[in-house]
């Protein structure tokens, strides 16, 4: 392929897949409260500002379950080998009460497991919405996404859902995301 053709194709690709600044997009919706939270979050990430660590976290990461419904090749699965466990609604309720009382700015509900496997995920989402946290998000492989879950996400004002695909073709996806029903199914789940 000639060098000029490569440049043209590369530029066409970049135009099609425009990179968006997620933080700016969320800021445009949530406004100054979100901008202030992100400023405070960045302060907590610096050793130089260690003396200004807040009394209550600016972001809380909660792992609801210790398992996943897939067996992806890149996943750290040691915690998935432990006996199955999930956070009780009572414990989660106490956490949400503390978050609401202290006006927690951000909550992430996953650290490497599939939260949609939690037997009470609908109630968890409702409790999360009731806590009125500014920025609430979670990651998922998208296999268990459906219309009901999408409605709960919207109703309870989750800011974002990060869906891991790791492939653009069925063949590559099957090699990476072992145990999934397929890229086409996940795309359908995401698109509704």
SSE class: alpha/beta
Number of domains: 1
* Low-confidence parts: 1-17
Largest sheet: 4 strands, parallel
Average pLDDT works out at: 86
Would you mind describing this structure in some detail?
- With 192 residues, this protein is α/β, with parallel strands linked by helices.
- It has a single domain, classed as Alpha-Beta Barrel (TIM Barrel).
- It is built from eight helices and four strands.
- Helix 2 (22-30) crosses helix 3 (32-44), helix 4 runs parallel beside helix 5 and helix 5 packs parallel to helix 6 (147-155).
- The radius of gyration is 19 Å and the shape is globular.
- The chain starts with a helix and ends with a helix.
- Residues 1-17 have low confidence and may be disordered.
Short description:
With 192 residues, the protein is α/β, with parallel strands linked by helices. It has eight helices and four strands. Helix 5 links the parallel strand 2 (106-108) and strand 3.
Layout: helices, strands, pairs:
Layout: H1 3-16, H2 22-30, H3 32-44, E1 59-61, H4 89-101, E2 106-108, H5 121-130, E3 135-140, H6 147-155, E4 160-163, H7 170-176, H8 183-191
Parallel strand pairs: 1-2, 2-3, 3-4
Helix pairs in contact: 2-3, 4-5, 5-6
Task: State the main characteristics.
192 residues; alpha/beta; TIM Barrel; 4 strands
